[in-house]
Each structure stands twice: as C-alpha cells, then as structure tokens.
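Design request, tokens follow.
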C-alpha cells in the first residue's frame, strides 16, 4: 500500500530512478500535470495517457483500483451524554470546549463521554458538576444523536436538566453561559452541536 512507510520508500526510489536529471523542473511539472489531468484517482483518462503501454494499472484493466492504500480502520464507537438546561428566561446553557483537541473552542450543550456500562443519566450528572459546577437533576431523555468523525462514531444521548443549582464554574470547559437564540447563533458551533440543538427544538 502506498500509505505505508515501505510504500513511501519504494515510491521515492522509483521517482528517483525516473527523474530526468538533465531537466528535473520540466520532468516534475510533467508528472504533476499527468496526475492532475490524466491519471486521476477516479475515471483516469487511460486512452489519453502517453505512458499507458508501461502502466501496470492499465494492464490490470482495473486502473481505478490504484493506488492501493491500507484498509481504513472502522470508526471507534463512543458513547456520550449531554444536558439541555434552560433558565427562567428561556436561555440554553452552552459550554465552550477547550481550545486544543477535538472540536476545540466550539460551543455545545455540556456533557461528556461515558465509560463502558455507565448509566448515562448518572454519568451526565457527574460531568455537569465537574465541568460546569452545577448540581443538576437529570430528567427524561430527549433525543439520541449519532455523528461520525473520521475515527470515531459518536452516539450522544441528550437529557433534559429539570433543576440546576449552584454557580457556573467552568472546569474542563473553557467557558459556559446561558445563551438566547441570537447569542447561540453567533457562537461558533460544530455541525454536531447544530444537530443536537435541532433535535431538542433549539436550533
């Protein structure tokens, strides 16, 4: 496979052997144009390729099978829970993720990942206390939202927060506040957060 260390070494060696050392600039330009205009990953123009007679992919009669890459690992399943807390003015509690890491700096309903076998509502209660400082009473489940990242398949359970006591004190989160619809619309959010808000009627 071309995306392995061995594959990269072999490609580099082959490129070195093919290089026209008398005019490397023109050679490299020609190779880039060949890849961009003729030998494309999808629907390669084999009929118009000037080197098809020496091409193993063309000879295989399945040129779109090349270049061969390592099989992509299946996304890791991840379970998580978040809470919809709404204050007396109808504002929704939002929290900003840390600047580093997945979805860094974006706003979302507060929550966290679940360990295997954990009760989602109880785990959410702990996350809300540890991450935003709330002593929360967790109510019914409102929605389950699925979202696929490149390496993770998230199943996010959304619960209603029926009571929330204590001052907002962000810990793991970089910030937290109750937001009205205009403030939520202006806050940077991920597609996942938008899906969650839409699922609970606050999109």
């Amino acid at each position: 496979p071309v995306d392995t260390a061995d594959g990269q070494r072999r490609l580099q060696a082959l490129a070195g052997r093919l290089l026209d050392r008398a005019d490397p600039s023109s050679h490299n330009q020609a190779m880039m144009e060949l890849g961009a205009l003729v030998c494309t990953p999808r629907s390669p123009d084999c009929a118009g390729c000037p080197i098809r007679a020496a091409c193993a992919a063309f000879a295989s009669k399945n040129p779109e099978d090349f270049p061969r890459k390592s099989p992509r690992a299946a996304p890791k399943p991840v379970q998580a829970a978040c809470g919809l807390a709404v204050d007396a003015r109808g504002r929704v509690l939002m929290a900003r993720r840390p600047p580093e890491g997945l979805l860094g700096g974006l706003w979302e309903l507060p929550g966290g990942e679940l360990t295997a076998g954990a009760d989602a509502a109880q785990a959410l209660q702990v996350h809300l206390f540890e991450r935003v400082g709330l002593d929360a009473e967790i109510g019914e489940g409102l929605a389950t939202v699925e979202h696929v990242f490149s390496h993770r398949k998230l199943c996010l359970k959304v619960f209603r927060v029926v009571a929330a006591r204590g001052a907002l004190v962000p810990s793991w989160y970089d910030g937290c506040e109750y937001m009205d619809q205009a403030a939520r619309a202006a806050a940077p959010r991920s597609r996942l957060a938008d899906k969650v808000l839409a699922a609970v009627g606050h999109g």
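Comment from the thread starter after seeing the answer: thanks! The chain has a mean pLDDT of 93.
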